[in-house]
Amino acid sequence: MTTSTPGMGAAPVLSAAERRARSNGLIRAAIYAVVGVLALGAGLFRLPASQTTTYRLVFDNAAIRLPDLTVPVGGTYAVAGVICLAVAAFQLLRPANLAWRRQLAIVAFTLIAAVLTGILGGKTPSLVGLIAAMVSFALPIVFAGLAAIFAERSGVFNIGIEGIILLGASATAVGGSILHSPYGGILIGVFAGLLLGLLLAVLSIRYRVDQIIAGTVLNLAAAGITTFMYTRILQVKPEFNAPGLVGTTPIPGLSEIPIIGPALFNGSIFLYVGYALIILMQLAIYRTRWGLRLRAAGENPNAAGTIGIDVLQIRYRSLAASGAVAGLGGAYLVVVSTGSFQIGMSAGIGFIGIAAMIFGGWKPVGVAMAALVFGFARSAESRLGTVGVDVPTVFLSILPYVVTIIVVAGLVGRVRVPAAAGQPYEQA
Amino acid sequence: MSRLPTVSANMVWAVLGLIAAVVMVVQKLYIALAVFALLILAIAATRRTVRGRAFTDRLKLPVLALLSAFLVGGIVLILSDLEFYSKLSANPLGTLEASFGRVVVAYWELLKGAFGDIPKISTALASGDRNKIGIAFRPMSETLLATTPLILTGLGVAIAFRSGVFNIGAEGQLKIGAVFGAWVGIWIPLPFPFGLILAIAAGVLGGALWAFIPGILKAKTGAHEVITTIMLNAIAQQIMLALLLTPILRPEGSTTPISWPILEASQLPLLLALPKLRVHWGLILALVAAVGTSWLMFRTTRGFEFRAAGLNPRAAGYAGMRAGRTIVLAMTVSGALAGLAGAVEVLGTNRYLSPGISPGYGWDAISIALLGGTRPLGVVIAAFLFGALRAGGQGMALATGVPIDLLGFISALVIMFVAAPRLVRELYRVRISSAAPQTPKVVETPV
Amino acid sequence: MRLQLRGITKQFPGVLANDHVSIQVDRGEILALLGENGAGKTTLMNILSGLYRPDEGEIVVDDQVRVFRDPAEAIAAGIGMVHQHFMLVPVFDVTDSVTLGSEVVRGPLGVLDRTTARARIVELSSKYGLDVDPDARIEDLPVGVRQRVEILKALYRHSDVLVLDEPSAVLTPQETDELFTIIRGLAKAGTAIIFISHKLNEVLEIADRITVLRLGKVVGTVRAKETTSSALAEMMVGRQVQLTVDRKDAERGETVLSIKGLQVRDDRGEIAVRALDLEVHAGEIVAVAGVQGNGQTELVEAITGLRQLDAGAVTVSGQPIPFDPRHVADMGVAHIPEDRLRDGLVRGFTVAENYVLDSYHREPYSSGIRFHPDVVAAAATTAVRDFDIRTPSITTDVGSLSGGNQQKVIVAREFGRAVKLVVASQPTRGLDVGSIEYIHRRIVEQRDAGVAILIVSTELDEVLALGDRIAVMYGGEIVGILPAAEATRERVGLLMGGVR
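^ inputs. structure came back:
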């Protein structure tokens, strides 16, 4: 985008895009600068109080011991301010820089960390615990985000993920209970998700139901039927809601890494499946025939159709995959988080997954990064909630949604949606 | 036109309707069920004159959608009964019959819960005891109570749909409206009716503001309103919860997320001075809003622009209308109605704000707008139906122990069938105009 | 390799798009398919590429009858299409765009082997002198290069027959020259080429043989060396019964519409109208002839305030027109848009509502914000009578009327108020003879009442029947303006084909 391609008539269009990129860059720099100055100000204001927060860096039973990390509250704010200002300066010096998602993620991370430290002043929170919580909050968001990618990359807007997670969760609970195996439950949950993805495909492709309406129907029906089943069956016969938990499997060595080891390398099977999915999908989307055709279906289905690719088949399969991954997210909630199905346990994760997809630029690795930012916000929020601080937590809880609105509106950088997403395709 | 197959399909329908009517009379499940059967009969029997066809064509889809949804609901009810499986092998026929009977009873209780019990009503009226009359009419009152916010949110969503914007943010707009209305209703002491009027205005403003954001973003940046309204729904929920935990809305030292009660002078008065009847003036407001919406859409230049933009934005632009302004205005009006619904709930029904302010009125609104064909009168009727489901569901749950959430499932199915005329056509082999109710085309994705 | 289409017939509702069309092309030969808009060229190509199934007739490849059920089968039979609207994915690079659907992969997982694919593209590209960077992103490429990517797509699939649908429509003259060099090279290497065009000179320059289509039928096939552009023009436009419009000579008044040095860009940002000057006087009809896609749409949109001017000036009675269609209408400009159901009417609205689509906000149809459906109904009732609109009632959905009556609704709306200038785009496209005559009569009546009229039409008959002066557009420019007396079919036809 920094060089304009020679060629007749193309130049003005490019320069318009360049202008836009430049003004977006200025907006970004301004935001970072304002935030940075505020944080710096807060730091200078709090500095004299010489209050400190002490982070525990390891769990009590960890093999490698590390001393506690004591940071001054004012200092943390000041450092956060300096980081934000540095990002702003970097942005100004390189105006056409496109890595704006990364900048945004860095700034969001820094600020959450600063606010957390500030509010927990005088206490001794466990940093390693915070990070572990971040990862466990991020994981279902990753599954939801990957589900959203599958659908939207193929050209179908799936807002029914929330409902699929919920139904997947309940299927996991019941299936796992009947099979007396949480792993069996996971399979049932994934299968249920797959079927629901197909249902969505049939409704939107075969019966031409608007994709938004179809997704909404799924969400409402899921909320209705799962609550109904819970009250009518699971509450009366709790033995149908006891699939059991899956344990954690530490990776020897890696899980002993201080601070991040327990979070990243001592998880359930879901964590490792999540890693595999992120990497495999990232590779598959960009490096395989399947991915190429998937992207073509979502970007220009006519181009795919005129050379004999079956676009509708791609969309059916992608929605099935989307549903299956969302079902996996539902299973996670049951067999890792709570051990049983609870009413409304999806708690908006499906929508946050869509947000993560958008923030992550429709890329699996981007979704993982976005999910970590959102997960960090959730983990900070829940940590603060236990301290009894309420007002600042609302800013943490709305963060994913606000970020998504800003991103979708293209206020801070160019957003590239699969061009045919949401549009029905009529095969000739 | 293939005339013959259609006629025979109509005859099949007529026979089915007759059988259903006879069965229902025999089973003494007269009133509404019989009306239902008669509706089917009417569809089958209508001569295919131009006017008649337009009318029945319009009714066929909603009626068949409702019928199908309740059928599926009944099947779910039977299958979710664990005893059904254990007894099935021993006595298949008897078990089936008993299960079917239970479904009929559940739906019957649903109707009683929604509209009241006729013998009970007549004895209460005869006795002249105000208390008894109140109790007898309570189901009807509860239905109307639930209908009130549904009319308002349904109208809001319908206006947006007709104008070519997909407002699925009524839920959030309702909540922000409720927060605004509650704050004014709690803290601004003005004599009746000024306090009330101010509080209602605040609610309208809140909802309008919350819908203005996606409207202006779509007009200026092309941000897809579906995504922005989903996100704003979640933000509204979090803001409402957070405020309910602060002295801004709840008493200092309170541990429950429940606000102060609304000042007496800012409450919506009850409509009937009978005990147990909670229906309040919000219903009248909602009906006035329906008339107002009808006026707006069909008797004002703005409404003309809304409708033109919803049907053919390109031709609207060629005729000199401004697309951006129409989007922003339509969204704002849509949100204002949802905000009014929030205010009405806080100021009339609950008289305080709590996290349960909306049991999904904003989502039902989508179903209602579709089921009502995005017409104001249709919306009122559909809202009444959904209100009846909500109120009747309570009665059903109390009398038979069937969880009320079955109705959430059934109403989701209703939208599915209404939005998929092809599916209904395939299932019932009837002729239905293939046009689903008008929804905005998913146009440019966000840029 | 020999490709034959025998007796292909394709019927669409209301149109016989192809009527027993037979063509033949041999290895190494360039066959041009020449015809006006609506002659049936594109339908024929969609049949050939497997997008449509013919109602009758057969496709024969090397004496073997083939049936193409979908594009994949046509591709497998060696037929490559370069569609007029490129079928490329903007965010893909050239390698991915070319290989899509026939990817080079390794292993059971289908991992893309981009190195091999890239090498093949480089090889093909240099072999045929296509000069395409395999790593460039499609959206960054100029149109001419994108077209070469489309050609690469076909070559990559070993196409023996390459079909190019109006390939020069989006190209600059230089790009067109480059394209022709490439096409000749391909033919020399043994590819059979079908070159679809309406441009006479191009066809004469590039083709070995020329098959002319008109109204879905083959008019004839000639050798390029043995024909002339005027002979081709005659075959293309035909000698149908002239439409006659009963009219007096024009009484030219003062200048109403004045266009000076106009430059307009299309939706993609390419220049669509360049350095265009035109004047229309009160009491005269200026008819703009030209094949579709030569900048007429953009010209009309610029005049009516729907499209921003890039350079130059447009004035109506001395007033510059603003970029706001409502303002332009208020200046006394009536507009009959080129596609009635897309641009001119709101389907789902009643006849009455469509009648006031651009005046609903004025007295007496509304006062302030209040809209008066009863007043509208009364006015619409009168209009239905005055303009002979055949409709069951004024509350009928406009979408259920016939095309002629739909157009009459627009004409009634636009002529129902005092206007100085009428801009009518394709005013009679797809109408029956009765409606055509009716609308022509109305237009002439307006002229006689002293209104300046600009008609844009791709129908040569209409242009000749109505125009007092005839301007021909080609490549975004007006290539000639002829008084009616001098405008013969041949002269206009030549100009339309870009021959000055």
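The longest helix of chain A spans residues 10-46. Chain A has 15 helices and four strands.
thumbs up if we can close this ticket
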